Amino acid sequence: MSRSPLRPAALVAGLAALALGLTACGSGQIDAPTSADTPQVKIVTSTDAWGAVARAVGGNYARVESVISSPDVDPHGYEPTPQNAATVGEAQLLVMNGGGYDAFMTDLVAASGNAAPLVDAVEVSGIEGAQEAAADDHGHDHDAGATPEPAGEAEHEHEHGSFNEHVWYDPAAVGRVAEQLADQLGRIDPSAAEYFRTNAQTLEGGVAQLTSKATEIGRAHPGARVAVTEPVPAYLLQAAGIANATPQEFSSAVEEGTDPPAAVVAQMLGLFTAQPPVDALILNSQTTSPTTDQVRDAAQKGGVPVVQMSETLPAGTTDWVQWMNANLDELSAALNR
Fold it and tell me: Using CA atoms, how far apart are residues 293 and 295, in angstroms rounded to an integer?
């Protein structure tokens, strides 16, 4: 449904070449000799999205465990367990998204009393407004001796404001987090510092290829517009230069777990009946409601392609670069229809 059917052959060929390169390399990491006695830095991340990034940088000299590692779990409503607190308490390096997204991790760290280095992805992302979002997040008071409050009782209480906290969908931000991880790991295990730096640089190479691929997709579809149920993929769309036509009040309400006003829902549904309609709908596959089902049905009825993107790694996926590459492939395929 793209409005640019006559795409330059060079752009199409470029996209194919980028897809091949990304599939071949993934996040990558250099080989390192290991044995049962090889020391490994224990890294604990809030979600497996950041676990994949940490694993790419830490490689053979790190052991990564993620509090959330299932695509069936919505991080917004996650209820931490005593085992989670014990796991966090044993970490030598902690990684969280920040920006209010994974508040359960802040509570777990406080409850565990662990003073290990903490990498806050929002804080190091370099995105405009990120420092303020990080400051707000860390400004919350936490009693280090308290039991983490079940997320089901505090679900969606934080204010997202205008900052989009889904920074793992921003290739440039992931590159900066990889650099920070390499620095922290190098301090913990100086003997493997060069190994960590090399792995981070390899990941940054994958980031650069993803950014180029996103740019090519945008160039192949000038004027393309999409709708999203939540702002999860917004940074990836920005990297591609593809407009998000979603009413902000709609996606914010869905993200907060509330019902958008009827007038806003009507505005959203109108995106699929307008002439021309939006080129694709991107659904958050981990959050569904009667409202998002209604939007999906309207898109399908209007012949608008539906793409699903998740907040955590899809089943069977362990590599961040390959995950984002697959998301771009799905987006490209939808825009080509």
Answer: 5
Nearest to 180 by CA among 244, 98, 268, 260: 98
Of 70, 28, 72, 78, the closest CA to residue 48 belongs to 70
Superfamily the domain 9-21+212-336 falls into: Nitrogenase molybdenum iron protein domain (3.40.50.1980)
Contact indicator for 312, 46 with CB cutoff of 8 Å: no
Give the sign of the dihedral formed by CA 239, CA 229, CA 248, CA 2: positive
Domain ranges of the chain: 9-21+212-336, 41-205
Q: If the chain, 337 residues long, is cut into consecutive pieces of 10 residues, what is the mean pLDDT of each piece?
A: 37 46 58 68 98 98 96 85 96 96 94 96 92 69 38 38 90 98 98 98 98 98 97 97 97 93 98 97 93 98 97 94 98 96
How far CA 238 is from CA of 79, 214, 233, in Å, comes to: 32, 9, 9
What's the number of CA atoms in the CB half-sphere (13 Å) around residue 240? 30
In sequence order, the 6+-apart residues with CB closer than 8 A to the CB of 326 are 314, 317
Is the alpha carbon torsion for 309, 169, 102, 60 positive or negative?
A: positive
- Residue 122's CB is within 10 A of a number of other CB atoms, namely 29
Cβ pair 133, 162 in contact under 8 A: no
Concatenating the DSSP letter of every residue in 91-107 gives -SEEEE--TTTTHHHHH
Q: d(Cα 331, Cα 337) in Å, to the nearest integer?
A: 10
> Is it true that the peptide bond before 190 is cis, omega within 30 degrees of 0?
no
Name the pTM for this structure: 0.84
| Whole-number Å distance between alpha carbons of 34 and 60 | 7
Check if 9-21+212-336 and 41-205 are the same fold.
yes
Fold of 41-205: Rossmann fold (3.40.50)
- Distance from the Cα of residue 86 to its chain's centroid: 25
